Automatic annotation (TrEMBL):
GO terms for cellular component: plasma membrane. The chain crosses the membrane at residues 45-66, 73-91, 111-130. It comes from Desulfomonile tiedjei. It is a multi-pass membrane protein. The lineage of its organism: Bacteria, Pseudomonadati, Thermodesulfobacteriota, Desulfomonilia, Desulfomonilales. The keyword Acetylation does not apply. Keywords: Membrane, Transmembrane, Transmembrane helix. The keyword Ubl conjugation does not apply. This is Energy-coupling factor transporter transmembrane protein EcfT. CDD domains: EcfT (cd16914).
Length: 266
């Protein structure tokens, strides 16, 4: 079911993005994200928006999955727009006839572009997580961070990243199961005073925290049983390898950067 697609969930498939090396996808996403937040002109933002939409189509996730996933971020986008519109005082005050409105034209412009940038960042990150499993993302981060091994425990950081990415969807699923179970017992989360609502919230948080700690304890025992030792080098069953498709994707990213650079110089 579409409701089972959690934030950051991996969707198995055979699209072009699924077949790319995770290092290519991670590096490409970082580069495009950089242009999204560093380039401020409307034309640059338009090009970034078109590129983001094209990447979203290449995920082959489907309109319904995208709609269900992005719907969860509507509140964030509305809040970002309202914050910029109401608190930016630069520019000319807007009026409606003889009525003075509590925002300016600069506030509207900044609110629109910041919300657009935030939406592009959300879509790009979801393109990565839809087409790349958490373990692949972790492996890509470890490989790209190898030059820093002399200064940072790259392997341990990668493991922590992997566990965090695995626990987020599990925690979401656990919370949904607990809420459904409490509703079946007659708990009404949207009614009552502050004390009743706090008690209802505790009925969800206490078992959620307890189950999370139990999962963490089981995971620690499983890692210890398999002989895990911090800092010990580990082999890979399927080593990452660049293919011709990665070269084509890299060429497209370079072309994107060239187009953005030409727009800047115009």
């Amino acid at each position: 079911m579409i409701q089972d697609i959690f934030i950051g969930a991996y969707i198995p498939g055979d699209s072009a993005l699924h077949r790319l090396d995770p290092r290519t996808k991670l590096a490409g996403m970082v580069i495009i994200l950089g242009t999204v937040f560093l380039l401020k002109s409307p034309l640059n933002q338009g090009i970034a928006c078109v590129a983001t939409a094209a990447i979203a189509v290449l995920t082959a996730a489907g309109v319904r999955i995208w709609f269900w996933s992005l719907k969860r971020f509507v509140w964030m986008l509305v809040f970002a727009t309202a914050a910029n519109v109401l608190f930016v005082r630069e520019g000319t005050a807007m009026t409606a006839g003889t009525l003075s409105l509590p925002f300016t034209d600069e506030g509207l412009r900044k609110g629109f572009f910041f919300t657009l940038q935030l939406a592009e960042a959300i879509v790009l990150s979801m393109c990565l997580t839809f087409t790349t499993s958490p373990i692949q993302i972790t492996r890509a981060c470890r490989r790209l961070s190898r030059p820093l091994r002399r200064f940072l425990p790259v392997e341990e950081i990668g493991l922590v990243l992997l566990l965090a990415m695995r626990f987020v969807p599990l925690l979401q699923q656990e919370l949904r199961y607990i809420v459904d179970a409490q509703k079946s017992r007659g708990v009404e989360f949207g009614r009552g005073g502050p004390a009743i609502r706090a008690a209802n919230l505790a009925a969800v948080l206490v078992p959620a925290v307890s189950n999370t700690l139990r999962r963490a304890d089981i995971l620690a025992e499983a890692m210890a049983a398999r002989g895990f030792q911090p800092g010990q080098s580990r082999s890979e069953y399927e080593p990452l390898q660049f293919r011709s498709l990665d070269g084509k994707a890299g060429a497209l990213v370079v072309l994107y950067l060239v187009i953005q650079s030409v727009v800047i110089m115009i």
